[in-house]
Amino acid sequence: MVKKVSKPHEAGPELVRGHNGYTWYEMGFFARWDTPDHCRVLCVDTPEYLHSELEVALEKQTALNFKDPFTMHRHLIDQILVLYDISVWRVRDPVRVIEKSRGGAGKKFDDMHEMARHGIHVTEVLAVSIETVDAMREYQAAIHNYKTLNSVLEYTDRQQAGEYMKFQVQVLKSLKRRSESNDKRLHNEIELAFFSTTFFTFDEDNWKSSVALAAGFAFTVSQIASP
Questions:
Q1: Cα 44 to Cα 50: distance, rounded to the nearest angstrom
Q2: pLDDT surpassing 50 at residue 152
Q3: pTM for the full model?
């Protein structure tokens, strides 16, 4: 599952459909491997972008070793990683815009909360994807060590396949860290906008009272915290 927010920073086709500003891609993948050299993967509800880019990637591949049941998964996961990367940066870019234009932030509460909701979804989906691909990696290692494949696949091929999927898991973890950073940065901006609106959007007399109240509160807290 991948969530896409509109207004991309990247070149290429727009992946968001409709007018609500985002699109969920609830994709399904079904693989069948028939020994010794037949592999089929059915991709359901994927964007056209994935189809075309996967085709390009496969055409660049000199030869696929269909003796490996996971030979197609490598390229498929690569393309899903691209979609995740776009999802993360489509949240990051609006966050950066908010950070650079803090004036009147109080008027943007709805937009910031909506973007925060998207960011939380992206982080959640990445967490689940890490568990999924890591489980696939463990299953791949078990299958590759099975005596039938052990005698068919070269040791180097098995090692390279395992290391590459480990790398893909690490990419997912890195994207999740970036997504978590987006969430925290946006949370900071929402808090800043809230406090700015609370204490500094009154008339002159009330503004002075609010500042005095804030200063008194800070003094009280510091006094209590002191030994």
A1: 11
A2: yes
A3: 0.76
